[in-house]
Write a structure and sequence with these properties.
The chain is an alpha/beta fold. 42% of the residues lie in helices and 18% in strands. The chain contains 29 helices and 27 strands. The protein is elongated.
Amino acid sequence: MSDDKNKKLQELLNDIERMNRADDADGENDAVADEAKPSEPEFLTEEQNVFVGEDDSRIRVVPMIPLRGLSIFPYMVLHFDIGREKSISALEKAMVRNQMIFLVAQRDADTDLPTKEDFYSIGTIAKIKQMLKLPGDAIRVLVEGISRGMVDKMVFEVPYFKCAVREIKEIEYEEIPNRTTALMRSTLSRFEEYLRLSPKVSQDIFPSVASVEQPGRLADVITSHLDIKPEDKQSILEAFDPDKRLETLNEILTKEIDILQIEHDINSKVRVQINKSQREYYLREQLRAIQEELGQGDIIEDEIEDWLNKLEELNLPEKISEKIEKEIKRLMKIQSSSAEGGVIRTYIEWIFALPWNNYTMAETDLTGSETILNEDHYGLEKVKERIVEYLAVMKLSEGLKGPILCLVGPPGTGKTSVARSIARATGREFVRMSLGGVRDEAEIRGHRRTYIGAIPGRVISAIKEGGTMDPVFLFDEIDKIGNDFRGDPASALLEVLDPEQNKEFTDHYLEIPFDLSKVMFITTANTVDTIPRPLLDRMEVIAVPGYTEEEKLKIAEQYLIPKKLKEHGLKPENLHISEKTTRDVINYYTRESGVRNLEREIANICRKTARRVVEKNIANSRVTPANLGKYLGKKRFRYDVIEDETQVGVTTGMAWTAVGGTTLSIETTVLPGTGQLVLTGQLGDVMKESARAGVSYIRSIGKRLGIKADFYKDDDLHIHIPEGATPKDGPSAGVTMCCAMISALTGVPARQDVAMTGEITLRGKVLPVGGVREKVLAAHRAGIHKILLPADNERDIDEIPANVRRGLEFVLSKDANEALPHVLTRAVKPARAAAGKTKEKPGGAEPLQC
């Protein structure tokens, strides 16, 4: 008999499925579907779609609506809004038939298109009491819960949900057991306490709730008034046994009462202080009270948990991890609003902001890198060659430590821009720190956390900004670093720039070692003289020499003029500057080794041209040597003017300055006096000593040069180097001053188109000097044709550009005797000695034959 009943049930469900599919057709197909609809079974109630299951339970075939964040209980009347297409279709079908519908809660309220796996199987069979269409295609529905139901089978899901629901009968007692009675009283007592503590539910509902006699219905009514999670309400709905339902409800009420009691205590603590300050103070106190109750609060716990997870992911060395973890755990025990809590929080945030284990994964392309360097800079071949060599070694050796390069040269020669090009060529990030005027050691190493407002040093800050562990790091103007009572920054840089130590660089603020060994450090300086020797010893010095006139011309034509035209909104056809004009700008309006002032003068021309374009609508301007003065004014310098006539006691020397080389006109005159040596022109001590050495040498060979033996007693020598406002020092003018004094004492004129440099000894030896390239370039600009150099400086001639060497004659001399024939215009005659008293002076030689 049971098998026959199951067979009939299955046939019935199949017929219902076919019937509803035909019934849901749209448009004109509805009429056709109605004609093809099979006849309903005889035992199916036409109005209710209800039949009896094999366990004598009632099964209803009704539309279903999934609810989001809402649960409906039997005997409960409430309204809700629906707007999803499936839900509206289900509602319309239910209204057409018998107004019965099955309401079930979704597992996840965020699911917009649920399937049968997205909602619970137990819900409530409800009757639709009223529906009202709202603006925006939404519908408000008023329903009344009838009984619990369980989905027995899903009939179909499209165009709406329709299912066979097994009705769950409610257990009703004629005589309630004692245990159930005790559960009911306990539940009512806890519900009364809940109403007392909860501000969201009125206590006036308690009498009506207490009047419910059946335990199951009591549990449902109480649950419908609770502000609890949908999951908790669903657990009540799924409890069919009244006792089990009351026990579950008791547990939920107990938990909610505890939470409400804590909230009440927090509000009580805050309410005591509410009249002492404004609303902002109240909110802060409330937050503090919450943190006291919850042990610093869930937000801080989540943040600390997030930090610990990040620390584990970083995979740092054990000692560093222990130090950071210790600070994180300290924060858990301290009030976050306290001063110490803020210090620890800032420290931890700094730690996790650093780019631990983040390296640049750029491929090393030598050809591409060399192309980038050539695009950005003209000349500087030695610098480019050294960079390409480093890249080649880096490609072959993964363990190569970052080099420390020191680019030394005059201002405006492109040292800083070379560093940027290196970063671009190597594919690394570029960070820069200017050391000019830095006097505090804390600028490098940071401040200790005991100081208020302490932060890491600028080295660590720059690494953080770069975002990688291996950027190109530029220390600009390292020769201008200072020191005072706050410490010596240069000493702090020793650890940073030492490849053997910077692997564990320790900042005073971080107090943990940080690896700087992969950083490519580059420093710039105008001179190495002011760089401390221990610091200089850690760097590879690369000279960035001044540019020749030809190099400046190429830089102006290829880089500066196009750049300034673009910056000033001019097109190439708006302004034409000839090559001769550019040379005149270089020679008569700038005096520098670099191109910084040249760039300013070109910008000046562009500004005046832009004004002509705007005011006079002149679209094409040509700047020539003839009209250059209209743009830049009168000429400021004279490079090519060399006095053609020879003069007694006047020689031409060469000097090195921070802005490149220059020529010096050394003037000497002999005056009657007491043998004094007068030196003027702001000469330094070393230069004065060179002049005295020259006088002693002249006294030793004076007889053969025709100089009277007692000149140092009866005559005063006055040496003056013009441009007296400019300080001068160094030994390289020794031979020049010696030749000038010999010219003055012998009365033989000296040639002005011969320039010389070299240190002189008491024996007349000419010692090598530095800065030969810059000095020779300055002499070439000044129109000098012959250069006298110390013999040991022969190796420096190769550093001079070929086009400059072709226009000069170089004479190498080992002592001053070899220089005199090239400087003096004629030979000097030796003085006649008394008969029988001829005696050669020390260091003497054969009389010079010029």
